[in-house]
Specification:
heterodimer; A: mainly beta; six-stranded mixed sheet; five-stranded antiparallel sheet; 11 strands; 0% helix; 55% strand; B: mainly beta; seven-stranded mixed sheet; four-stranded antiparallel sheet
Chain lengths: 112, 119
């Protein structure tokens, strides 16, 4: 069983739609939850991270973590064509370890 | 540009050759990470340095792979006797020491990657 499962999509939505991206993880020891955005043939770009359960908002982006169900979500409001990219969720255990575990990414297209 | 830089950006090599990639982290970031990403997959962890010490290695890092960070600044990743299965994007990331719980490895900043093609 992989540490993080993520539906690869693809997901295609019209401009202005609300987008919901989701991941599940297997190990309750994970404490930090990240979302990265990756444009084609570029490195991943950190969008936001959340520690433990709860919500975190940054502009049009909201990250949500439910540790009881091991479920993490990213919501994008008022989606724009420039949001078209692959979105990767990642989890981190904490302490002195360095490894992030990534989902396989969801490919999102926002059409005008 | 003060982000993570990687060189070369692209490398085409023949099977059996050795290749070396370089990563320059964000200045003053003491933690440096290497990942590998294949098409349609998320990045997979290879190894992690804190300053010059290599603290964590994945089982993906076979005997043909070696990584160094001799002075705690830039890092190199060498692949010996390349195989076609080594074709991938090799990503480097860095993070600083500050953050919650005594570490900040959750806040990793990635470079643009080196795309390796083994023919």
């Amino acid at each position: 069983q992989k540490e993080v499962e993520q539906d690869p999509g693809p997901l295609s939505v019209p401009e202005g739609a609300i987008v919901s991206l989701n991941c599940t993880y297997s190990n309750s020891a994970f404490q930090y939850f990240m979302w990265y955005r990756q444009y084609s043939r570029k490195g991943p770009e950190l969008l936001m991270y959340t520690y433990s359960s709860g919500n975190k908002e940054d502009g049009r982006f909201t990250a949500q973590v439910d540790k009881s169900s091991k479920y993490i979500s990213l919501f994008i409001r008022d989606s724009q064509p420039s949001d078209s990219a692959t979105y990767l969720c990642a989890v981190y255990r904490g302490s002195t370890l360095g490894r992030l575990y990534f989902g396989r990414g969801t490919q999102l297209t926002v059409w005008p | 540009d003060t982000g993570v830089s990687q060189n070369p950006r692209h490398k085409i090599t023949k099977r059996g050759q050795n290749v070396t990639f370089r990563c320059d982290p964000i200045s003053e970031h003491n933690r440096l990470y290497w990942y590998r990403q294949t098409l349609g997959q998320g990045p997979e962890f290879l190894t992690y340095f804190q300053n010059e010490a290599q603290l964590e290695k994945s089982r993906l890092l076979s005997d043909r792979f070696s990584a160094e960070r001799p002075k705690g600044s830039f890092s190199t990743l060498e692949i010996q006797r390349t195989e076609q299965g080594d074709s991938a994007m090799y990503l480097c990331a860095s993070s600083s020491r500050t953050g919650l719980a005594g570490g900040s490895s959750y806040e990793q900043y990635f470079g643009p990657g080196t795309r390796l093609t083994v023919t």
